[in-house]
Amino acid sequence: MPHAPPLGALLRQYAAGSALTCEPVEQGLLNRGYRLRTTRGRYFLKHHFDPETADPAAIARQHRATQRLADLGVPVAPPLTGTDGRTVAVVGGHAYALHPWIDGRHRHGGQLSTEQCARLGALLGVVHASLERVMPAEGRTAAKPAAGAERAETAAPTEGADPARGADPADTFALIDRLLAQVRRHRPSDAFDELARHRLLERRALLERHADRRPPQGGSEGWVHGDFHPFNLLYRDGEPAAIVDWDRLSIHPRAEEAVRAAVIFFVRPLGTLDLTKVRAYARAYRHTAGATPSELTAAVHRVWWERLNDFWILRWHYERGDTRADPQFPAASALAVWWTREYESVCEAFAG
After folding, report:
1. What is the pLDDT of residues 230-253, one digit of tens each?
2. Any idea what DSSP says for residue 105?
3. How far is residue 245 from each of residues 36, 102, 199, 289, measured CA to CA in Å?
4. Cα–Cα distance between 349 and 352 in angstroms, integer?
5. Which end of the chain is more exposed for a tag (fewer CB within 10 A), N or C?
6. How far apart are CA 158 and CA 11, in angstroms?
7. Measured between alpha carbons, how far is 298 from 115 in angstroms, rounded to an integer?
């Protein structure tokens, strides 16, 4: 098994018995996880591999947050404490954490009833309200946004973006030109190249028409999960069992996380949003988070602009030679076009 974790040293540090089986779980784009069975039970072993989030002090802060959230009744899976009193084990220069194994499955919006969508929105609202209770109020400087594909399906800002205002269209036009040149040079040309070229030209035309709609400064900031999407939420018997992967816990406009999460949960394969489910989700979120319709409307505008200027999948494909996110491209690229056309309907669904 490549990159096998040092099980002997880790299990001794946690007094978790002897390993019986250790299998990689379906891997995300950065950190690595393992389904671990020992003589003392079943666990999830997380290897904090991402250099941006693998600082033991930052991981310990995330762990403290999840324990406090668990104390408030939020469905999370706090890590176990080692024999040294710490929740982070550093072995061979690598950071690990051991969590209880949570039986459950991931569910996207198409698998949720309208009532379950409302409960999902209420859950995220509870998360935001609870984080306000358990996290420090000082040091409220927005964290650097994650680099797009490190989060399963989340958009990344264009390089040169002003975090307070979003992407500058001039930078995006330059990026589009660069990507178009890379598409032309790619040999042999294939269907992905053809779709990429079409979407790049289409997006440039959209930006030319809407370049004057760059958003103003963001809304009310607070502590957010930072990566709330279907692969970070486990369901059991139709109910949320655990919110996982708190690596992106940070200060950010809360309403924007609510919009981004909905866009990921409720996007359809052809790049449209299920606005009926969005409406139920958003209404419940506003109620539990204490957010106003105007806050959600402003967040919709900022996330729409973010998506309009977003090309992280193409950058991974053409600049890194990494094709893992390619299957997301058809729906993600179509969504920006549909969202621009249905802008007012999307705003109404989040604010109505």
Report:
1. 999 999 999 999 999 999 999 999
2. B
3. 17, 13, 32, 21
4. 5
5. N
6. 42
7. 25
At residue 340, what are phi and psi to the nearest 5 degrees?
-65, -40
With tokens 């289409």, the residue in question is: 202
Question: Is-contact 55 28, C-beta < 8 A?
Answer: no
Please tell me whether the overall predicted TM-score, pTM, comes out greater than 0.70 for this model.
yes
Q: Strand 32-38 relative to strand 221-224: parallel, antiparallel, unpaired? A: unpaired
Render the burial of 159-168: b for 16+ CB within 10 Å, e for the rest. eebeeeebbb
The string of pLDDT tens digits covering residues 206-216 is: 999 999 999 98
Find the angle CA(54)-CA(152)-CA(72) to the nearest 5 degrees: 65
Q: From start to end of the chain, where are the E strands?
A: 19-24, 32-38, 41-48, 89-91, 94-100, 221-224, 233-236, 239-243, 250-253
b/e for 45-61, b at 16 or more Cβ within 10 A? bbbbbbeebbeeebbbe
Query: Could you give the 3-state DSSP secondary structure of residue 99?
Result: strand
How far apart (Å, rounded) are the C-alpha atoms in residues 351 and 296? 6
Kindly state the DSSP code that residue 110 receives in the 8-state scheme. Answer: G
At a CB cut-off of 8 Å and minimum separation 6, what does 344 contact? none
The token pair at 297 is: 């409307």
List 271's β-bridge partners, or say none.
none
Q: Residue 317 corresponds to which tokens in the numbers above? A: 């494909």
Cβ(219)–Cβ(299) below 8 Å = yes
250 burial (CB, 10 Å; 0-12 / 13-18 / 19+) is buried
**CB within 8 A of 272, min separation 6: which ones?**
334, 335, 338, 342
Which residue shows structure tokens 């390619």?
Answer: 326
What count of residues does the chain have? Answer: 352
CA 286 to chain centroid: 20
- Torsion angle defined by CA atoms of residues 23, 29, 30 and 36, in that order, rounded to the nearest 10 degrees: -10
Q: What is the token pair recorded at 18?
A: 């002897």
Tokens of 108: 């996207």
pLDDT band at 3 (very low <50, low <70, confident <90, very high): low
